[in-house]
Every structure is written in C-alpha cells, then in structure tokens.
Amino acid sequence: MTRELVKQKFGQVWPAHVASFVDLLIEGRRAVGDLDLLLVLSVIGDRNMSQRRTAGERTHQELFERWSGRPEPEEINSQSIAHYTGIPREKVRRKVNDLIMRGWLERRDGTLVVTRKCAEDLSPMTDKGIDYLSNMFRLLDAMRAE
C-alpha cells in the first residue's frame, strides 16, 4: 500500500523528499568533506550495523550505548566497496585510509569496522538523518489520513 500511496501522491512526496535529502547531503558534505568518502563510510556502516545486526536495539540511545557489545560486522574490504559502489578500487583504498587516519574506521581481522569516534563526530549528521526520516513519516501519516 505504501508504494502505491507514494505514487498517487508523488507531487507531495517528491518535493519533501528532495528538500530533506538535500539537507542530509549538505550536512554529510559539511561533516565529512567529500561525498565519495561519505558513500564509502556509509557502505561500511551498512555492513557493520545492518538491520539484522541491530534488531534488538530499539532506540538511538540503546544502539549507541551498546557500541562495543555489537555482533561482529559482516566482512567488507576496499575491493567489495569498489565493486558495490562503482568507485575505482584505488580511490576507495585512499578513502578507507583517510577514514582510518581520522579514527573513524579500524581494521579488525581483515574487515573494516566503524568506530565509536565516528558515531560521536558525525552525530550532527545522524540528527539530520532523523529529521529526514521524521519528515517522511509525518508526510506519509498525513497522506494516509486523507
């Protein structure tokens, strides 16, 4: 039903989505400085904290508090990131090294892991992401009520 509702109300959804998404991208660029770097970090974050790995945590606070107690992340490396994103492998490797130098990533048993420092440093971007999702939920709720 949601997909059909979005298609029916596309004229309302699209502008709200674009405005909120642009705000999120701007905050990401401001926080990270490079959208390819942000994409590489996002792919690693997805493998580290995918829905099936975080299903037990119900709130942002609970997820953050249990940072060190999370299950082991799915394996990911520069080659798999390059393949998935289409970013050249050497460029991904440089981005990964940059993220490690910032203290936002570490290598653990051959895989890349997002650090707590990353989550702390990028909390303004997380807040923008929450704003984006809130705007979309609010809009969808209003459309359902019509």
What does this 3D model show about the protein?
The protein has 146 residues and is mainly alpha-helical. It has one domain (2-145): Arc Repressor Mutant, subunit A (Orthogonal Bundle). It is built from nine helices and two strands, in the order αααααααββαα. It has helices at residues 2-8, 10-32, 35-48, 51-54, 60-65, 78-85, 89-101, 116-121, 123-145; strands at 105-108, 111-114. The chain has a two-stranded antiparallel ribbon. The radius of gyration is 17 Å and the shape is globular. The protein starts with a helix and ends with a helix. The model has no long low-confidence stretch (mean pLDDT 87).
Global shape: globular
User: If strands are numbered along the chain, what order do they take across the biggest sheet?
Assistant: 1-2
Structural class: mainly alpha
Largest sheet: 2 strands, antiparallel
